[in-house]
Amino acid sequence: MLEIRRYTADAANEWNNFVAQSKNGTFLFDRRYMDYHADRFQDHSLMFYDDHRLLAVMPGHIKYDTYCTHNGLTYGGLVMGWELRAAQTLEIFQMLNDYLRTQNIHRVHYKCVPWVYHRLPAEEDLYAMYHVCHATVVARDYSTNIFLGANMRWERIRRRGVSRAQQAGVTVRCSDDYAAFWKVLDDNLWRRHNVHPVHTLQEIELLHGRFPENIKLYEAVRDGEVLGGVVLYLSPQVVHAQYSSATEEGKKLGVLDLIYEQIMHHDYKDYPYFDFGRSTENADGSGLNEQLVFQKEGFGGRGLCYDIYEWNL
Questions:
Q1: Cys-Cys link to 158, which of 175, 242, 298, 305 (CB 3.0-4.6 A)?
Q2: Are 204 and 217 in contact (CB under 8 A)?
Q3: pLDDT tens digits for 155-187?
Q4: Is 189 helix (H, G, I), strand (E, B) or coil?
């Protein structure tokens, strides 16, 4: 018999062990990652059991009368064990709706885990949301991904950037010096968009300390000066560029092209996918940044959608 339990801190080890062995979970669902910003969200994560055997977990929080999965994460939704079946998933979503009604929740805002992050096919939740919840897509964001095994040829402008950076004496290193890169990133974001990075320097250093094998920084350096960098989030299927930025001099020299050449053609060439992340201006995914997409497509990137669903209770 299926049952639902609200997550509590004493279940952290059980939760984390389950996520690590799930078919669509990544380290973003580990409580050590999720809870770094626990003060910003009213956590209401859920765990689903069948006769005391954990089948699935759902990172979530409550905002007003809405259950969200999860606004503090790039993607979310039901994290499924390898043995979870389609019929059980239908039952889970029916049980979820019944439970949320008892909590005076009127709406569900549901992010999905994009399929490239799945270690096994894991779209039982999409089927259940349509047939049990009658959910509709309310936002569709656009990301650019590369199937690294396809070995797509880079466009000439990207190849020239690599040569220009090499000829200028720029080198690429994997570094723990987040402070130097964060100054480049923050200055660039503030000058161009009047915003700061989602993570503060202290937060990204904390998360790197907790997940040193999952969060990596690559920097482009010349004469000791950091000219640009890329922060990678590594999951079993995907190398994701969480942040990338360069100084004005770094942009002229093509340092990001050189960093990506090192990442894609050498250090992580055996990964299935590289995810550049979103290229849109607005929260609902509208406002395509065509210049940014053009740059990513020059490396061989093509489209992947990040969808958000809603349904009323």
A1: 298
A2: no
A3: 999 999 999 999 999 999 999 999 999 999 999
A4: helix
